[in-house]
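Hypothesis: this fold can be encoded by more than one sequence.
Test: take the structure tokens below, design a sequence, compare later.
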């Protein structure tokens, strides 16, 4: 009698069962294999932002609504990582191993951990309070780039000025950019020669050449986003968090899903998710897993190219 091997079918069924509602990723060359499960870790979180790899390879992300930073372990279990987070949103680590965060309770940039080293790095520019910083990235010199889109616009209320800032490791806060409609996610290329800014109210991810002193050159369109929609006040792409892999590809959390671009801005493909993602990060062993959070849910996807190893974020 001829033996029928069932292993491939069984493996496929297991992968299907592990994925979010049976969802799988499309093939994106060098990024993800066709049929890779999109694993739902958990739903029901109270705000989902700022994911970052922890030193042990696990992941932390922010739940601003309950003033907590939450940890996801390798087995997908979750637990509080840091409470009383002052409304932390974006997260990063500096060279000293300190957890640096955008905080929204009293808007600013602060060190939240380790215990005993907590401090506010900046909460004013030229004597005026910051509006509502959103995301950040720490460069290899210890400087902090961050976005400040202000609160979400409301009909009938004045539009709050937006900006991108740079806080050198030693020196005064610099306002770099004031012409982005709604700056949101922020990231550096692996060589730190390019600064990327997600413009939620635009149809492109923006790019700026980085100068030796941390300042930046003129704004340019880097990557054209799919899924842009018109609103009463303009357009929106939903562009939010950004991440880079070891090959310099840029991953963008947007309304249609995670859009991936090569180092020159060419669109490579989109990983659609059940809920629109808000932010993302590479973590796990060798940074071979892409963690994506948004709208109260967290997912993970095995990738072919690891995240950039030269920075935590």
């Amino acid at each position: 009698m001829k033996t029928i091997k069932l292993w491939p079918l069984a493996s496929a069924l297991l992968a299907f069962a592990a994925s979010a509602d049976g969802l799988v990723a499309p093939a994106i060359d060098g990024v993800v294999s066709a049929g890779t499960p999109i694993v739902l870790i958990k739903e029901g979180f109270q705000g989902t932002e700022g994911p970052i790899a922890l030193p042990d390879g696990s992941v932390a992300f922010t739940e601003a609504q309950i003033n907590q930073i939450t940890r996801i372990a390798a087995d997908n279990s979750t637990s509080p990582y840091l409470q009383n987070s002052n409304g932390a949103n974006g997260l990063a680590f500096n060279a000293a191993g300190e957890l640096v965060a955008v905080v929204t309770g009293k808007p600013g940039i602060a060190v939240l951990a380790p215990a005993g080293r907590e401090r506010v790095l900046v909460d004013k520019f030229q004597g005026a309070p910051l509006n509502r910083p959103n995301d950040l990235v720490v460069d290899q010199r210890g400087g902090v780039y961050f976005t400040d889109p202000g609160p979400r616009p409301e009909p009938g209320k004045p539009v709050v000025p937006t900006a991108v800032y740079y806080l050198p490791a030693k020196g005064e806060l610099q306002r770099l950019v004031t012409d982005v409609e709604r700056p949101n996610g922020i990231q550096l290329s692996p060589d730190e020669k390019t600064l990327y800014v997600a413009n939620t109210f635009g149809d492109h991810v923006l790019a700026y050449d980085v100068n030796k002193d941390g300042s930046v050159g003129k704004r340019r369109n880097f990557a054209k986003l799919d899924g842009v929609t018109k609103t009463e006040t303009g357009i929106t792409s939903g562009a939010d968090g950004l991440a880079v892999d070891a090959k310099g590809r840029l991953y963008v959390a947007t309304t249609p899903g995670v859009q991936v671009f090569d180092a020159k801005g060419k669109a490579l493909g989109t990983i659609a998710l059940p809920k629109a993602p808000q932010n993302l990060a590479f973590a796990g062993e060798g940074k071979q897993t892409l963690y994506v959070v948004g709208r109260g849910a967290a997912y993970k996807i095995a990738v072919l190219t690891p995240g950039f190893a030269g920075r935590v974020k």
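The first helix runs from residue 7 to 18. The helical segments are 7-18.
Hypothesis status: open.
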